Amino acid sequence: MTEYGSDALIVCDNIVRIYQVENIEVQALQGLDLTVDRGEMIAIVGASGSGKSTLLNVLSGLDVPTAGQARVAGWDLLRMTPAARLAYRRKVVGFIWQQTARNLLPYLSAEENVSLPMSFAGMRSRRRIRRTAELLDAMGLADKARRRPGELSGGEQQRVAIAVSLANRPEVLFADEPTGELDTATGEDVFAALRTANRNLGTTVVIVTHDSAVSSQVQRTVAIRDGRTSSEVVRRTEVDEFGASAVIAREYAVLDRAGRLQLPSDFRSSLGLKRRVRLELESDHVGVWPSSKEDD
Ligand SMILES: Nc1ncnc2c1ncn2[C@@H]1O[C@H](COP(=O)(O)OP(=O)(O)OP(=O)(O)O)[C@@H](O)[C@H]1O
Fold first, then answer.
1. For 103, what's the count of Cα atoms within 13 Å in the CB-facing half-sphere?
2. Which stretches in the chain have pLDDT values below 50?
3. Where do the ABC transporter domain residues begin and end (predicted)?
4. Using a 6 Å cutoff on CB, does residue 115 contact ligand 1?
């Protein structure tokens, strides 16, 4: 059997993150599994406190899980030296925060902000200038390159932030509520910019969001509940016999490596499924029945 997620770009295998707050343990992630393939653009959704930000912090190298395995582009996130962690954060991943002001240096122009990570990486000036112009152009901001963040709208600032995060050609872009502070139309522009990064530049994109306009437009939406992945919606475009295309969305329960899955609570309550269930293997599905009265 091949190793779990061996061909995926991001692999989280049973990750646990426990915070200790004064003698109380908070389990922010409780055995979370997730794989993301290279080139995917996915959304992560979930109620407040379900563990989304903790997961992004782990994946972007800001935080270290208590247990489990997490790998991104071959980097083992539980076993990195401080120097490797810095290199990982500079070269392998890009990050966009919800608070627009946190993404950019206020006293630098848009082009200076985009150019900065390339200077840190030691890129020669001529290449840097060319790439800065290309990135701002791809984000639809060629005419605003000289403006400082304070002279740009919230959506324009987020698009500059996307250009900054793409500067050193990261493998993955992580965005935590990138449209959270924006109105609908501006949020759409930011989402379009992320899509450009994904489609035209080939960057894998992972977005944590409460915004249904975002989560309904990506290929896959992963739902997190109580620090675990609980379900996934996969979307694909189907063309009918008349040539009309429609997006088909299908919801799946997540099956972990050990074969465990969670039955939705409304399924359990409507059939009275409790403590144990009877399983039967059919030719193309598995049947789940309540245990018989006599055995209860
Ligand atoms: N630094 C910390 N110290 C202690 N507990 C924390 C810390 N960070 C997060 N938690 C706790 O871990 C759990 C998950 O938090 P997390 O911020 O990951 O959730 P979230 O899904 O991102 O929520 P939101 O949508 O509100 O941002 C919560 O119970 C939270 O209180």
1. 30
2. 1
3. 10-251
4. no
